[in-house]
Design goal:
It is built from ten helices and two strands. The chain is mainly alpha-helical. A two-stranded antiparallel sheet has the order 1-2. Strand 1 and strand 2 form a beta hairpin. Helix 5 runs antiparallel to helix 6, helix 6 packs antiparallel against helix 7 and helix 8 packs antiparallel against helix 9. The two termini are about 15 Å apart.
């Protein structure tokens, strides 16, 4: 995925978390400590919880962990590594309660490894929080390095289609729709570069249809704007015009 577009999407995904933060202050010892104490408290509760209570406690623990990774990412996007000492302290203390958060430099993002989201879905696949856990796993996988071969991309696209089919009215559906379009776009590029014109044409059509669907289904939303911009770049690339969307090209 093109780095510039990834930054656009990252800004979109983080908007809800950044909305309440000051322009100059994002990560502080106080809000970091609050997140870590909450994780420690939930981790203790999880050890002692009855089986019927474990899914609810686990959900709140993993959401807190994922939100912490987003907070750290937001800090780096705003200020670089000026708060590295505080960030590293948070990561070490999170690891003490079995929460693994890692920095991915090529993605410019901290990611929680998502293990407990999968545990939650195994324990409570029909729970009301299952949609949120499923979305966060999709988001983690979307930003994590690797998996750019056609087989992996097709599997990733299927997981997004499954989400949209199961949770069509979910608040995250527009973001998943954009991610699905990007999977299709990457498949088009892989097949095009391999000289597989049949599959390249198929996934180019899927890319355009998915972007059109997002723009039509969510008019006025940020995702509709992103879909429109991405559609223009895909069309330009397909026509052999501006290098905006081409591999190695730069999105403006």
């Amino acid at each position: 995925m093109n780095r510039s577009l990834r930054s656009v999407l990252l800004g979109l995904f983080l908007a809800v978390f950044a909305a309440g933060a000051g322009a100059d202050i994002i990560l502080t010892a106080r809000n970091l400590n609050a997140s870590l104490k909450q994780m420690q408290r939930l981790h203790s509760q999880l050890r002692d919880a009855a089986p019927s209570q474990r899914p609810a406690v686990l959900f709140h623990l993993v959401v807190t962990a994922d939100d912490l990774a987003l907070l750290l990412t937001n800090e780096v996007l705003a200020h670089g590594m000026l708060q590295k000492g505080l960030i590293d302290l948070g990561i070490r203390r999170a690891a003490a309660v079995d929460v693994s958060i890692s920095w991915y430099p090529d993605k410019e993002r901290y990611l929680y490894d998502g293990r407990a989201f999968r545990q939650y879905l195994d324990q409570a696949p029909k729970d009301p929080h299952a949609a949120e856990c499923s979305f966060r796993l999709l988001q983690i996988a979307f930003f994590r390095p690797g998996g750019d071969d056609p087989l992996s991309l097709r599997a990733a696209a299927q997981r997004k289609r499954d989400f949209l089919q199961s949770y069509s009215g979910n608040k995250h559906a527009p973001q998943v729709g954009i991610m699905l379009a990007i999977d299709y776009r990457d498949l088009w590029r892989r097949y095009r570069d391999a000289g597989d014109t049949a599959n390249a044409g198929r996934y180019l059509q899927k890319t355009r249809q998915q972007l059109q669907r997002v723009a039509a289904d969510y008019p006025g939303a940020d995702e509709a704007t992103i879909a429109g911009r991405l559609r223009q770049r895909v069309d330009a690339e397909a026509a052999g015009g501006a290098a905006a969307g081409a591999p190695g090209g730069k999105l403006q």
